[in-house]
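Minutes, project check-in
Item: structure for the 330-residue chain
Input as provided by the requester:
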Amino acid sequence: MYLDKAARAISTSCDIDEISQIRQKAEALRVYAGRCSEMGRKCGIIRLRAERRIGEILDKSVRRGNPKLQRSQPATIAKLADLGITKSESSRWQAAATLPAEKFEQYVESAREPSTAGVLSLVREHEREQAAADGPKAGGNIFTAPASSLWNRLTDNSVDLFFTDPPYKEIDRYEELAELSAAKLKGGGLCLAYAGIRFLPDVLDVMRKQLDYRWMIAVEFAGTDSMVFPLQIKNGWQAIVIFCKGKKAKPGWITDHLHSGGREKSGHQFQKTATDVEHIILHLTKPGDLIVDPFTGSGTIPATCKKLGRNWIATELDSGTARLARKRVA
């Protein structure tokens, strides 16, 4: 009766504290009963349901791994720690919430010992199936998925360079990038991101909360300037911000003034020039290094990685654009 009542409460409640208490009681009962017993198994299922439900709630208010809730939440709730939830738990439980309900139900009903690790394994399998449905994926390195999927796809302290081109107006994407980089970069690794000049103050503010600011590259446009009519400015250069995990970056000289090779928009309206990207990757990495591009667009960075003998992992939310990126590295 308790287990049935707990399951109903989990499915209807929006109170994280209430669901967390149910999860804790179910886990304590599971340990007491023995995880291999039928009672222990049922308690394990209750725990997984609670984690998945908490993940659904957190997904609306906090990014995976982010210790801060977004501004839409009550000011009295400042951090995940106030909820008794770690960054790792937030990331795992939000990932569990992305698994389709039918697959989750099939798993908990058939698994001998249902576990969080088992659910996350199915999440990764589901993401691979989704990417495969959108077309060939060139060694599995470009995925049709949000950048947040990289929390589960990448090992901590494993990435040599993050290099990407987020949507300029979406400052929270830069914050997400910095958080991901802080966890997944090797010590001394760099995170480079294209940024709109108009949004630079906000970009710098959110990224230096997680990483150390190092420098900025100016990429001079080829041809005519871009007209910023509201500000009456002729914009002739593009910014690339450079942040580091730790105070001391890995060796690698690079100039802070590049000349663009010209407009290359054959694959995507925001496609970057291959000559700019090639110069940066050539000077900041070595063959075999892992480069991650969470907002890959049409895939200029992965294509350059292939040309220069670097390894890459990239994500792109739009399935059509992701297909273009995969064709470039096929």
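Outcome recorded: Residues 28 and 43 are 9 Å apart (CA to CA).
No further action items on this chain.
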